[in-house]
Design brief:
Order of helices and strands: EEEHEEHHHEHEHEE
Radius of gyration: 17 Å
CATH architecture of the largest domain: 3-Layer(aba) Sandwich
Distance between the termini: 30 Å
Largest sheet: 6 strands, mixed
CATH superfamily of the largest domain: P-loop containing nucleotide triphosphate hydrolases
Shape: globular
Number of strands: 9
Helix content: 25-40%
Length: about 220
């Protein structure tokens, strides 16, 4: 991100001259209070919103016609956003279905991924039969099924109880270590950002200040 600004039609300034460089394999948290522009920045990175000024640069070898790395980004929202009429398996299969990959061709990959998030025994279950933490695990599995290079997570555990939240923090940290994926994680929890990240971008209204995290 190079001097990215975002002003909404109402006149609200969400971002003002924000610059951020993300390198492969990093786990970055955008930390700050509500209304400081964290989610806006994440959506702009995802291509879900345009900039008022500034620009987003990607490695030129991976750019598609929309100016984004083709198939390299996945997004986990604050809510699991699962289709209630589809099973866990079918919800995870959806991104592959949109690419024309059949259930049979994807079965081994999906079941392996469900095992990774601890849901291999719930492939035939429906969202109504799952706890909040399990629904979020399905959402994470769905985000990972396309093997993205960049995973964007917008306060995914904010609505969960503390015990479930900590377990999912551990799960995400383990997945990051195993896959080497790049993660940008939005949170307002100082503990969560320090626990998960190797770099924190502390957001004040509209801007960010980057600081590294050192672990023993």
């Amino acid at each position: 991100m190079e001097q990215v600004s975002k002003v909404f039609s109402s006149g609200t300034v969400a971002l003002s001259g924000m610059s951020l460089t993300v390198t492969s394999g990093e786990f970055i948290s955008l930390l700050g209070p509500s209304g400081c522009g964290k989610s806006t920045a994440l959506r702009i990175i995802a291509g879900l919103g345009g900039v008022s000024s500034g620009r987003i640069d990607w490695p030129s070898s991976r750019i598609n016609s929309k100016g984004l790395p083709d198939g390299d980004i996945s997004f986990v929202f604050q809510e699991p956003t699962l289709m209630p009429w589809k099973t866990v398996f079918d919800n995870v299969h959806l991104p592959l279905k949109l690419r024309g990959i059949s259930k049979s061709a994807a079965r081994e990959q999906i079941m392996a991924l469900l095992a990774t998030v601890g849901l291999q025994d719930f492939a035939a279950a429906y969202p109504r039969e799952l706890s909040g933490g399990m629904k979020m695990r399905v959402s994470i599995a769905r985000a990972l099924v396309t093997k993205p290079k960049l995973l964007l997570m917008d306060e995914p555990f904010a609505a969960l109880d503390e015990i479930t939240r900590q377990k999912l923090n551990d799960d995400v940290l383990q997945l990051w270590k195993e896959t080497g994926i790049t993660v940008i994680f939005v949170t307002h929890s100082v503990f969560e950002s320090a626990y998960l990240s190797n770099r924190i971008v502390v957001m004040r209204p509209g801007r960010g200040v980057s600081m590294p995290i050192f672990r023993c």
